[in-house]
Amino acid sequence: MWSRYLLILLLFFVSGNFSYVSAESNVSSNELDSVMDGFDEDIVEQEVDGILDDFGDDAEQAVDADTKIATASSPWQLNGSLILSSSYNYAHNSPAPGETDHRGLSRLRGSLKLELKADIIDGWKGYLETKLSHDLIYQIQGRSDYSHEQLDSQESEAELGEAWVQGNLARSLDIKLGRQLVVWGKSDNLRVTDVLNPMDQRESGLVDIEDLRLPLAMARMDYYQGDWNLSGIAIQEIRFHKKAQLGSDFYTGSVTPIAENTPSHSSSNLEYAMALNGLFSGWDLSFYWARLFDDQPHQETKSSITAFEHGRIAMLGAAMNIALGNFLLKSEIAHFRGLEFTSTPNQKKRRTDLLLGVEYTGFDDTTWSLEVADRHLHSYESALATQSIKKDEWQTALRYTGEFMHARLKVTFLTLLFGTPDEGGGFARLQGDYEWMENIRLIGGVVAYHGGDKRPFTHIGDNDRLFLDVKYSF
Amino acid sequence: MKIMLSLFVILMIVLLPIQAADLTARQIMEHVDDRDDGDNGVSDMVMTLIDKNGNKRARKIRSYTKDKDEDKQRIMFFMMPADVKDTGFLTYDYDEYSKDDDQWLYLPALGKSKRIASSDKSGSFMGSDFNYSDMTSKNLDAYDFKILNEKAVRGAKTWVIEAIPKTKEEIGETGYSKSVLFVRQDNYMVVRAVHWVDEGGRIKYMDSPKIELIDGIWVATKRTMTTKKNKKKLHKTELNFYNVKFNQPIEQDVFSLRRLEKGL
User: How crowded is residue A209: how many other Cβ atoms within 10 Å of its Cβ?
Assistant: First the structure.
């Protein structure tokens, strides 16, 4: 008899136990059955015709950091983009008699960028980039309405971009020769230690970020040891910021342009730079030193001739990133010596720039970043105020980036302020970048400028623009 | 005696299957976690993003992986589409769950590597229906597991295991309030999964319709993730892997910023 009880008890336990599982489960059997219908049973082989061509079947070769990881089907690759770019000025007032009317459509530019990449021999590669552009707006609006300086600067351009050869001299030693970009620092929006390459400042806030930095001819060597990398750079090409020319609505200089002297390309005018970069788990640290010509010129009068000159400056700096959960903390510091200013002739001054920033990625597909920088000029004199130079110049940048529709649409908002909103000026840019179809993107938005006492915002407060680009990449 | 015999038979019937696979859900998931997923791997991936109207966008990515002790290092390069070509992504995925991954993104247009700080893995993996937590191993201690039942998936027996996050932090990090995993009993692969997305009333279906034994390692050479709401398909991602190889002579310094910036 006891055996029957035992049997019943056992069956009760077993059945009860399974019942318990069902009762406790957060996913009920009904719910599970319901969601099981969600799986596709009609799995078909993906349409991959042609899509695999670039992969090859060659991933077996030995690879290390010095050699090419994988063999593409050809050692030569030609890529590039074709861009039709337009902008529309909606905030200008009527121009004074004799001035250029910048209202309305202000850009209708076609650009072609070609990139040729070559795997020369094992561990060595080359890169050549050319850019061609022509802006039809000057013909449409009437070329005679524009200054020849502006036409020369912005109507047609043919420019050699990056052009370099890179390889490894030894297992831990790389060399890169030619026109190239070297980006220093941890900030994405403000420049503190990123001092090597000049910028295209002809249309502040409007220049595509890909075209913002201008390459320089230089020789760069990198030595790698453990977590550290030591980089030494000699810059042969003397080149400064591209600035808006007389007649442009971004021009902030005098009515009669003053000549600008560029130091000659000679061995005594070489620029030098060094960087020591450490990369660690959760944080990075970099130290920088550079001896350059100042991108910002000052006026000098020699033999009764006044011209803009670029003085020699030295920069010592450091930058650090710390990742804390979803926060990325950024800091940069740079100390400059040898700065010269028009309003304090025959004096060389020092400046210390400090940047603190934070980036937050805790919201899905979204990045917020805030950066604040103070540029503190030592031995400040009141005469500098005539150049709207302050003892402490504050800059603030706030950037939002969000991806929508499975990264088909990327929205970016960037606002950059000098001082307080009532002081130096700034701009806000809202941009949408939409993947319209394969290899074609639509990039559009608005840039609103805020006038102030900081150049160039002294003159461009009403330069607000709508812009729309169509970009085909190949 | 007859009753005793009956009792024995019933006991055998009831208990033997449990004894044969006498594993708790937690133990099964430990097997899943410990499963050999290969070392020194090379693969090419085509990621196809399919919207609800069937429109497709494709990305081609070449990736290299290497185990460094218990940690996993991965470097990936976009090969297509043209506007993101040569973009690189370097990840050090640490086995220690309290330690955040190190991640860097290289954008060739900017000529700069950028560190990415993100302990939150609920964000979309490159615009796909997969999120970053789908691409990395789970912290088993952060879940309560339970065997719901057994089902056959494409003829293979699986355990159906419920995974409930123990904390809101884990839900926040993965984006999933609960999951049901289908673990193959012969090789401990998760071949299907249903994830309840914490926000928006969406459910995501992961499926591995094609698995292959490559160099002795079971590999899902095709994976899909379909996002649905109220049983309507919102979006789907297909990952197809090609040229998958393991035990390749990949040196440690491939997984470095030096290589990330040099590109393929």
Answer: 13
| Eight-class DSSP state of B82 | G
CA-based angle A303:A306:A307, to the nearest 5? Answer: 120
- What is residue B190's predicted lDDT score, i.e. its pLDDT? 96
**Is the CB of residue A327 less than 8 Å away from at least one CB of chain B?**
yes
Calpha distance B91→A194 (Å, rounded): 25
Largest Cα–Cα distance in chain A?
125
**Percentages of chain A per state (helix, strand, coil), in multiples of 5:** 10, 50, 40
Say what the ipTM of the complex is. 0.86
What's the pLDDT at A14? 42
Nearest-angstrom CA–CA distance, A349 and A313: 10
Give B227's strand partners: B204, B235
Q: Identify from A5, A26, A360, A470 which residue to disrupt to test chain B contact, counting B C-beta atoms within 10 A and taking the largest count.
A: A26
Torsion of CA B243, B249, B251, B254, to 10 degrees: -20
Residue with tokens 């400090």, as numbered in its chain: A354
φ and ψ at residue A124, rounded to 5 degrees: -125, 135
User: Does residue A312 contact residue A338 with C-beta atoms inside 8 Å?
Assistant: yes
**Measured between alpha carbons, how far apart are the two ends of chain B, in Å?**
75
Q: What is the pTM of this model?
A: 0.85
With a pLDDT cut of 90, the percent of chain A lying above it is 67
Query: Which residues of A are less than 8 Å from B96 in CB distance?
Result: none
Using a CB–CB cutoff of 8 Å, tell me whether A188 touches chain B: yes
CA closest to B106 among chain A residues: A183
* Contact with chain B for residue A91, Cβ under 8 A: no
Rounded CA separation A55/A238 (Å): 41
Residues β-bridged to residue A114: A80, A130
Which of A7, A10, A18, A69 to substitute to test the interface with B, most B CBs within 10 Å? A69
* Buried residues in B202-217 as b, exposed as e (16+ CB within 10 A): bbbbbbbbbbeebeeb
What is the identity of the amino acid at B29?
M
Residue among A108, A112, A159 at smallest CA distance from A135: A108
The reply to whether A225 touches chain B by the CB within 8 Å rule is no
- In this structure, the number of other CB atoms found within 10 A of the CB of residue A333 comes to 18
Looking at residue A369, its pLDDT comes to 96
Q: Are A176 and A166 in contact (CB under 8 A)?
A: yes
CB contact under 8 A, B207 and A39: yes
Both structure tokens of A367: 């990045």
Judging contacts by C-beta atoms under 8 Å, the chain A residues touching residue B46 are 46, 48, 51-52
B118 with A40: Cβ contact below 8 A: no
Summarised one tens digit per residue, pLDDT across range B78-127 is: 999 998 899 999 999 998 888 889 999 999 888 889 999 878 888 899 89
In the structure encoding, which two tokens stand for residue B16, read together?
């033997």
Would you list the DSSP string of A260-296? B----SSGGG-EEEEEEEEEETTEEEEEEEEEEE-SS
Q: Mutual orientation of helices B2-20 and A2-24 as an angle, nearest 10°?
A: 20
Q: Is the dihedral of CA B149, B152, B157, B160 positive or negative?
A: negative
**Residue in A11, A36, A43 closest to B209 by CB:** A43
Minimal CA separation from A457 to chain B, in Å: 26
